[in-house]
Write a structure and sequence with these properties.
The protein has about 450 residues and is of the alpha/beta class. The strands form four sheets. It has an eight-stranded parallel barrel, surrounded by four helices. It has a two-stranded parallel sheet with strand order 1-2. A two-stranded antiparallel sheet has the order 3-4. β7, α6 and β8 form a beta-alpha-beta unit. α6 packs parallel to α7, α10 packs parallel to α11 and α11 crosses α12. The longest helix has 28 residues. The radius of gyration is 24 Å and the shape is globular. It starts with 11 loop residues before the first strand and ends with a helix. The protein binds D-xylulose and cobalt (II) ion (CO).
Length: about 450
């Protein structure tokens, strides 16, 4: 196998003052932050589909980048070349994990049996590369949104036959995930939604999605999958309304159908903002429900109403993300760059520079979050803000020992109350800036 990214060597940490575009400025894998190495805080993953597949085609134009890696696209030779390119790329960047959809790995055949045979073949080769490099699989998933048969959904389809094809794809994707030692298995409900209720039986669709997930859990556990299943919430695109709208909706769904013990959330930054939430809101919602599993690390453009899947750049966002992750005790999964270079960034160098940007942005986020936590003023403020619940009537309320009548008498005995303390938002924002930029 010959080198693919010929003029690009191993990417090294050179520090903030480095002007070398092919070096890390902030990501220093071995550096210790809050008692752990950066690479342990930040298990980064490469998304097979964007990095090795997406070549710039959009609704208005064709590919701008060459991701043939010297082979004809749509062939098994190309699938092998993608494996070679992917492992060389990850090795040079120090990325320790990858994520995949079934059909990212091999060209889909007309007959599912042939697709599955190809998956067996390529996963044998991937295993060899994993052993050679020490690179691991973060999660796998089945693409149940591209094939036209899924136009009305997969678990939510109107066709029992299509439902069986979805089941078949999940079964095989689970087999391959387990074979590659994947830590997680993702459900992103790309077509699990609707355009109009005029043609939709919402109850049946939701029940059926849950049935499919239950079968996946039963099968996964039966073949030795001990990792987490994830739902990756997204409110819209490609469907107008998607059932996994946001973390709260997905968590409610999992609890309703008794799936909450096997599933966690895979939170994507761009999906959060599409749902009208901050990334941080989605992380906190997952964490307080014990369901923060993994992250799809990217960012959107707030001026655009769709999923732009940009590499993370906004350091306020990565800082607040890392604050949430540290407070939650870390992830069971990792940080998957579900991100693509902009269409005109079409060279091999751009692929590397995009990952350097994203990894540096998260390293900065980690460093900043650690500083905010060590400074302590933000945590202290929040603690004090709710201090009235630590004693007297407040303590009774939080212990569940108070009745409505008792609280009513208490309020009457007070006559009138002071308004609560100031929220001090501007002071807190100023504190964050002074910590970040001192
Ligand atoms: C789509 C998306 C997917 C999932 C995996 O918006 O994020 O790539 O991450 O199916
Ligand atoms: Co994603």
């Amino acid at each position: 196998m010959s080198e693919i990214f010929k003029n690009i060597g191993e990417i090294k940490y050179e520090g903030a003052s480095s002007k070398n575009p092919l070096a890390f400025k902030f990501y220093d894998a071995e550096k210790t932050v809050l008692g752990k190495k950066m690479k342990e805080h930040l298990p980064f993953a490469m998304a097979w589909w964007h990095n090795l597949g997406a070549a710039g085609t959009d609704m208005f134009g064709r590919d701008t980048a060459d991701k043939s890696f010297g082979k004809e696209k749509g062939t098994m030779e190309h699938a092998y070349a993608k494996v070679d390119a992917g492992f060389e790329f990850m090795k040079k960047l120090g990325i320790e994990y990858f994520c995949f959809h079934d059909v990212d790995l091999v060209p889909e055949a007309e007959d599912i049996k042939e697709t599955n045979r190809r998956l067996d073949e390529i996963s044998d080769y991937i295993l060899v590369k994993m052993k050679e490099t020490g690179i691991k699989c973060l999660w796998g998933t089945a693409n149940m949104f591209s094939n036209p048969r899924f136009m009305n959904g997969a678990g939510s389809t109107n066709s029992a036959e299509v439902f069986c094809f979805a089941a078949a794809q999940i079964k095989k994707a689970l087999d391959i995930t387990v074979k590659l030692g994947g830590k997680g298995y993702v459900f992103w409900g790309g077509r699990e939604g609707y355009e109009t209720l005029l043609n939709t039986d919402m109850k049946l669709e939701l029940d059926n999605i849950a049935r499919l997930m239950k079968m996946a859990v039963t099968y996964g556990r039966s073949i030795g999958f001990t990792g987490d299943f994830y739902i990756e919430p997204k409110p819209k695109e490609p469907m107008k309304h998607q059932y996994d709208f946001d973390a709260a909706t997905a968590i409610g769904f999992l609890r309703q159908y008794g799936l909450d013990k096997d599933f966690k959330m895979n939170i994507e930054a761009n999906h959060a903002t599409l749902a009208g939430h901050t990334f941080r809101h989605e992380l906190r919602t997952s964490a307080i429900n014990g369901m923060l599993g993994s992250i799809d690390a990217n960012q959107g453009d707030l001026l655009l109403g769709w999923d732009t899947d940009e590499f993370p750049w906004d350091v306020y966002e990565t800082t607040m993300c890392m604050y949430e992750v540290i407070k939650a005790g870390g992830l069971t999964g990792g940080f998957n760059f579900d991100a693509k270079t902009r269409r005109p960034s079409n060279t091999y160098e751009d692929m590397f520079e995009a990952f350097i940007l994203g990894m540096d942005a998260f390293a900065l986020g980690l460093i900043n979050a650690a500083k905010i936590i060590e400074d302590g003023r933000i945590d202290e403020f929040v603690k004090n803000k709710y201090a009235s619940f630590n004693e007297g009537i407040g303590k009774k309320i939080t212990k569940g020992e108070a009745s409505l009548e008792e609280l009513s008498s208490y309020a009457e005995s007070l006559g009138k109350t002071e308004i609560p303390c100031s929220g001090k938002q501007e002071r807190l924002q100023s504190i964050v800036n002074s910590i970040l930029f001192n």
